């Protein structure tokens, strides 16, 4: 038992150290946007404390955007004449290697920086444990009973309990421990599965099962049959030789104009994540196709939390979490910060928007739960 417990805590410590070494990964603009013309990057960056070794991930359509790292002067003037670095793959990862500096990024396509595609990131020093951190309190150790037993009222030592009674107590303790282990393991597995489902969302191939992204499918009827939630994905499957996918604003959607696209896709197998709450608009940019019906309006709602809280008993007061109307049991929500809540032994962990730490948090919680039972 002792060796197993030591192994579990070693794994937890290694996971914590690994997360510290590599830092967090932030997808620029997530969860509500990306590297595009719609996202307010000043607001997005102000909600995150960037630290050395963190990573920025720029996701965008390389047909209409790029990423340039520039000096402060070029950032202020939106000049792309002397870039410090240029990226144009559509999925670029940049590591913030140094602390105490500000790094500047813009889109180099004419007019895009002036329209708001610019990002300033202040990098702070990584958090470290101080030398005066409080040491954990020692665990009380129960004293073993004396072989002679405890003194009786008359001063004579009482006889120790019989071996049969001790054996029965041991059996009861072992059975209880086994049930506790099984219960905690089940809680950890359900929490991990719920977190994965919440983070991933559903994937919908546009037009299926009866059609696709084409001129025959009634895309309005298709979309009306689905309740899209934040975190879901749209998959556009089509012939790249005859169609494309253009995301536009409401005005462009209503007039079937692709003159000012929000983003554009042309591979024939394009996946678009519905990262925020609101309405998104897509059309085919090939002349005449939108007017013929190749247009899709998608309304995204907040993701419903996955909870198993039972209803509160009548007259319950001062109930633990989950019995007084607050989330309890296991509750994995979406919103701006996915949360895992586990009761009893109330444990809660939250993840910053755009961070990749949710899976690691769930794994650590699982290991801690398993370690408690040994």
TrEMBL record:
Record InterPro entries: Cupredoxin, Phytocyanin-like, Phytocyanin_dom
Biased composition (Low complexity): 151-164
SUPFAM superfamilies, A to Z: Cupredoxins
GO MF entries: electron transfer activity; metal ion binding
Signal peptide boundaries: 1-23
PROSITE patterns linked: PHYTOCYANIN
Pfam families, per database record: Cu_bind_like
Keywords carried by this UniProt record: Glycoprotein, Metal-binding, Signal
Keyword DNA repair belongs to the record: no
Every Phytocyanin domain range: 24-125, 202-302
Region (Disordered), start-end ranges: 130-164
Any one of the GO CC terms: plasma membrane
Protein name per UniProt: Phytocyanin domain-containing protein
Organism: Eragrostis curvula (weeping love grass)
